[in-house]
Amino acid sequence: MMRCRKCGQRAVINMRHHRLALCEEHYLEWFIAQTQRAIEKYRMFRREHRILVAVSGGKDSLSLWDVLLQLGYEADGLYIGLGIDGGIGYSDVSLEKVRAFHERHPERTLHIVDMKETYGESIPDLARRTRRGRGKPCAVCGLVKRHIMNRVALEGGYFALATGHNLDDEAAVLFQNVLHWQTGYLARQAPVLEEGGGLARKVKPFCRFYEREVAAYALMRGIDYIYDECPYAVGAKTIYYKELLNQLELKSPGSKHQFYLQFLEARRRGLITFAGGQENVDLHPCERCGQPTTAPGLCAFCRLWEGQADGAAVQLL
Ligand code: AMP
Ligand code: FES
Ligand code: ZN
Ligand code: ZN
């Protein structure tokens, strides 16, 4: 029997990469303390700041909201209704999970932005109608989510926007970016992106947790979440990269952690620099919504609605 390192009781989780086994009580304590350490280490935000947590209804973002509230942060939620069904009522079910969580914290605000109500079209509508979305709903979806998150964070006067990205997510994206040497993306992949130029500050407090650690936290805390992946994500490249990294992790525990954290560390020490990265890109405000864009005139989000009758509605937002 594996024993908890803190109290010697029966352990419920063994983290090989940390050489640490813990009982439920001490695991929850450890998880919350680790989150606080990440927030401090990367100088994400402080007690006096208001935080907006983007919640999808999945285990990561709901657990993040839960931990931030337990730590005493002023954290509100934002749910974006994408209108995805996929035969499993994906968006409806995820909204139910978010609402159920929020009912336990009525003192906090839950912002809900429904795409169809606000912009007249859902993700599947956009995927059908626009050239950009055809065959790749995930690309437009990413664009739309970033736009809405940014808008709500700025309009609500939040200090930072927090997302539930975990180590598995970050390592898979890093792997993809390295495989294609996408230096622009590599330059921007970080636990904290500073605010400025019309963009909200973005933070990822869970970026050092393995996915299974977050799942264990959600389970122990009795957080009900949507198990299904987005139906459009099935077969996505990042899922394949996650599998590859999991195989690597099986053979050598801790390699995912090292891959990501050594990247951050090397960059911090100036060993990796991206000349011609972020800073040199010529950004200016979109003529319609004001969010930064490299394109002349309208940003990619506003261009999605061009020529649409309800494009005018976007202008009013
Ligand atoms: P994903 O891109 O689906 O892996 O999600 C990454 C993070 O984005 C999640 O952990 C959430 O913080 C946020 N997110 C994803 N989908 C939504 C949504 N529909 N509404 C609000 N936040 C979301
Ligand atoms: Fe956006 Fe799947 S969550 S396409
Ligand atoms: Zn214990
Ligand atoms: Zn715009």
Mean pLDDT: 92
How many individual domains?
Answer: 1
Classify the helix fraction into a percent range: 40-55%
Radius of gyration: 20 Å
Describe the 3D structure.
With 317 residues, the protein is α/β, with parallel strands linked by helices. It has a single domain (28-281), classed as 3-Layer(aba) Sandwich (Rossmann fold). It is built from 13 helices and 10 strands. It has helices at 24-41, 59-70, 90-103, 115-119, 123-129, 137-155, 167-179, 183-188, 211-220, 237-251, 255-268, 300-304, 311-316; strands at residues 13-15, 20-22, 50-54, 74-81, 110-114, 160-162, 192-193, 202-203, 284-285, 292-293. The chain has a 6-stranded mixed sheet with strand order 5-4-3-6-8-7, sandwiched between helices. Strands 1-2 form a two-stranded antiparallel sheet. Strand 1 and strand 2 form a beta hairpin. Helix 1 packs across helix 9 (211-220), helix 2 crosses helix 9 and helix 7 (167-179) packs across helix 11. The radius of gyration is 20 Å and the shape is globular. The termini are far apart. The protein binds adenosine monophosphate, FE2/S2 (inorganic) cluster (FES) and zinc ion (2 copies). Residues 4, 6-7, 9, 22-23, 25-26 line the site of one zinc ion (ZN).
Summarize this structure briefly:
The chain is an alpha/beta fold. It has 13 helices and ten strands. The strands form three sheets. The chain has a six-stranded mixed sheet with strand order 5-4-3-6-8-7, with helices on both faces. A two-stranded antiparallel sheet has the order 1-2.
